[in-house]
Amino acid sequence: MSSRIELLNAGLLRSDGRRPYELRTLSINFASQGTADGSVTFSHGLTEVRVAVLGPREAKAGSRRETLHDRATLNVEVQLAPSGVGERRRRGRGDKRLLELAATIKSTFEPVVQVHLYPRSTIDIFIYVLQLDGGLLPACINGSTLALASAGIPLFDFVCAIAGGVHGTQPLLDLTTVEENDVPSIVVGVMPRTGRVTLVQMETRLHMDRFEEVFRAACDAGKVLWSEMRDALRERISDLVETLEAGPGAFVAKEVEET
After folding, report:
1. pTM here?
2. Which of 4, 21, 150, 190 has the fewest CB atoms within 10 Å distance of its CB?
3. What's the mean per-residue pLDDT of the chain?
C-alpha cells in the first residue's frame, strides 16, 4: 500500500528533511550487558538495537552434536521489544520473519569471523530490537560487527550494511519504514578494507540500471559507516586502556557510569 506522505519534494528533500544520499545519525554505546563478552547499543536514526555476544565458549551439553571439529559455530537470535517496533502482534522466537533475519545475519558473518581459531566452540549473537523505523537488517549487522569486535573476536574485516532504494529515478540511501514500504530497495553489506561484498538482499524488483546506481552508492555509504564505527571502537578501546591502567576501582566506576 502506498504512503500518502510525500517521500521526495521538488527540492529533493525527503519526508524527514534529509537529502537523497544523506544518512541518519549514528549512536554507539558500548555499555556492558550482564555476562556478555561484548555488547553494544546501536542506533541509526530512530532504529535501535541492543546486541550482546557470548563466546567463544564450549558448547552446552545438549548442543554438542551441532559443533564442528575444525571451527566455531555461530548462533544468532533476534527478538523484538514488546513496544517501540510498530508490530500489532508479538513475534516469538519461532516467528518465521525473525528466523529468516537471524539466518541472514549468520550467513553474513560466517565468512567474516575467524571461526577456524575456535574449533568445537560456539559464538552466540543475541539481538534485541528496541525501536524500529526502517533499516532493521543493516542496524543488526552493524551492531553485531561492533559487539563481536568489542568481545575480542578476530574478524577478517568489518561488515558495514546500509539499505538503498529508488523513488522514481532518484536513488535514496538509509531508508525509513515509510520509504521501505513505498520504494523498491536493497540491503548491501560490504567489507570496506577489502572491498568485498558479503551481503546483497533484494525483496522487491529493481531495474538493472537502477540497481547498479544504488549498489554503488550503498558501497560508498558503507565506507562512511566504517569510519564512524571504527572511530567509536577505537575510542572504546582507548577508554578501557586508560581505566585499566588507573586500577580496578577506576574500571568498575567506568562500567557503572556507562550503564
Report:
1. 0.90
2. 4
3. 89
Distance CA 127, CA 53 (A): 9
Q: 238 exposed, middle or buried (CB, 10 Å; 0-12, 13-18, 19+)?
A: exposed
Q: Which residues of the chain have pLDDT under 70?
A: 1-4, 61-66, 84-94, 248-259
Q: Are 139 and 42 in contact (CB under 8 A)?
A: yes
User: How far is 23 from 163, CA to CA, in rounded Å?
Assistant: 10
157 CB neighbour count, 10 Å cutoff = 17
Rounded CA-CA distance 33/45 in Å is 22
DSSP labels for 157-222? S--EEEEEEEETTEEEES--HHHHHHS-EEEEEEETTTTEEEEEEE-S---HHHHHHHHHHHHHHH
Angle at 168 between CA 163 and CA 170, to 5 degrees: 55
Q: What is the pLDDT of residues 178-236, one digit of tens each?
A: 999 999 999 999 999 999 999 999 988 888 889 999 999 999 999 999 999 999 999 99
- Longest CA span, the chain: 61
